[in-house]
Amino acid sequence: MGKFWGGASSTAMGVELHGVCDERFRTLRDAFIANFDDGLEIGASLGVTWRGRMVVDLWGGWANPKRTRLWKKNTIVPVMSVTKIMLLMSVLMLVDRGRIKLDEPLARYWPAFAQGGKDKVTLRDFITHQGGVPGFVPNATFDELLDWKRATAHLAAQPHRFGGKKVLCYHPITYGYVLGEVIRRVDGRMPARFFRDEIARKANADFHMGLSSWLDLFRVAEPTPLPPPPFEVNSIATEIIDSTPLFSGNARTWKFASASIPSVLGFGNGRSIARLCAIFAMQGRLGWRRYLSKRMVAEAAREQIYGEDLYIGMIRWGLGFGLDSKDFPAPSPTSFHWGGAGGSWGVMDPKSQVSLGYAPNNFLSGAGAAMDPRLARFNAALTKLMPKLSRS
Fold it and tell me: What is the pLDDT of residues 182-191, one digit of tens each?
């Protein structure tokens, strides 16, 4: 393949790959190439930062399954639940500013949410997927999911799914509406606007929580259809999935792409994910600007609960981030991460000061490093690199 760093390009399975890679991180470049060589990719991008500096920035392949549009440097793609990283960053910023408190009931900020036995649900409960509204009851329609007022009113009015008891159950779609409504009520801005103003623009990160310009549609990569969930679907998971018929829409239609669904409807690439995750890897600071306090980053990475989730199985949660465990392995004991259905991934590690972002358009079944062979390669490479970088 020759030298692939310094702006050169290479090919894998006849696909042109581009970008730069610091030689110390060549194992990640090799993993990126291997995924194409093994036919696991259509198009993808990979970004890695170390000490806040981009050390890997790779992209290539095709921006659509028919392989008629090239994946370019500025191509973005739906990254599904990786969007939750950006949503959480926004929420934790407001906690840092004293606008909201982790252990106060959500109803303090959104009084209508107290209906149906949800009056005692705290912000911390909700962030750790113990909020009691994992899906919509009754089921939402696609049009309702695109209407912020209708969707949030629906969730405020419905009863607690578990009679007010704390039960661990992943909130795949409702997460963004509830946390986003808290942002809107205490700040006045919609969550996408808050994220854009306070984080994305200041960090110079090409990540969008719903598109704000129709021109961006032309650079959105088309993903393959969403696969079945990467776990055995039980009755509760089926209920949750059926209640949110979100992806009957198309990511490249303006009505859908511009909607505010801040738990899953994010558009970015490996570069922008890695840059935003660097805020956590650098303990809240990126460049000369501080986004989060060291205390808040430490709390985000601290174990909040470790148990059996009714939707996804065993999980060890920080403040909305997956922590290292045998069920959802992270590259190191001190790193935290989250992935999106189809394979996108964000990783951050304050000890080694490394962050990783990955965004493909071939939506495989895995949503975590233990399930997706592409992520397993990146995970293995980081596991070997991080101890060396921590000592550098």
Answer: 999 999 999 9
